[in-house]
Inverse folding.
């Protein structure tokens, strides 16, 4: 009887509780890490209170801030040499609200999605979970390694989420019908020129926090720092077709 029971246990095809919970444990660890980074970057006062005017405290705070800055430069600097100075944008992760707002603006859409400057990959993973075939463009090797590791840990197939170490400014984006970007105001004009030339007419562009200048807004979600803006390329081309100094071609 004991041997029979042991044999039955070995042959049982059902996964054990430990096997079932391992992917969930990995996702929880990754989520905690991302939430911690978000809290530090967006509300440092919760982590480093500044209301105690003691010299020792001030010195310790300075050391901590210097350490945080050093860590931040590891994420922000490595890929900078690959991009012209005028197009450089430092890494700043999108908040949970920003990611949710972007997903709202993608409702009802399908197809290939490009995230320009994918950072730690949080937006790519959110879109992949909704069925998009996503490509995250990221030139920072540290962030790229983190995104790929997370995809492996959480079991996201490469057919749904791919992270490439390529400069999106040098890539042809014509195969993408959905484009998301969280960049900086200084590069938005250059981005608009690139996208209007390359994207198909049925593409949608979603910009986080910063609107694209001179483009007619289709819709937006959120407010303040979490506001996101959606633009349909067909509408943009129709509006700008006869604009001064604007060359628009349908694709």
């Amino acid at each position: 009887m004991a041997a029979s029971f042991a044999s039955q246990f070995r042959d049982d095809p059902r996964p054990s509780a430990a096997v079932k919970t391992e992917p969930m444990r990995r996702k929880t660890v990754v989520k905690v890490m991302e939430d911690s980074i978000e809290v530090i970057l967006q509300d440092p006062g919760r982590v480093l209170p500044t209301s105690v005017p003691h010299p020792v405290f001030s010195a310790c705070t300075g050391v901590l801030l210097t350490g945080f800055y050093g860590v931040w430069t590891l994420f922000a600097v490595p890929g900078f040499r690959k991009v012209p100075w005028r197009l450089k944008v430092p890494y700043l992760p999108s908040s949970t609200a920003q990611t949710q707002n972007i997903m709202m603006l993608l409702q009802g859409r399908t197809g290939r999605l490009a995230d320009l400057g994918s950072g730690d990959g949080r937006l790519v993973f959110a879109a992949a979970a909704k069925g998009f075939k996503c490509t995250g463009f990221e030139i920072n090797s540290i962030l790229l390694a983190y995104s790929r590791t997370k995809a492996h840990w959480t079991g996201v197939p490469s057919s749904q989420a791919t992270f490439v170490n390529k400069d999106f400014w040098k890539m042809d984006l014509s195969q993408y019908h959905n484009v998301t970007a969280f960049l900086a105001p200084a590069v938005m004009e250059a981005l608009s020129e690139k996208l209007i030339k390359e994207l198909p007419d049925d593409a949608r562009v979603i910009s986080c926090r910063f609107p694209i200048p001179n483009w007619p807004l289709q819709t937006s979600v959120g407010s303040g720092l979490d506001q996101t803006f959606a633009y349909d390329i067909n509408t943009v081309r129709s509006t700008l077709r006869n604009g001064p100094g604007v060359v628009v071609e349908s694709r």
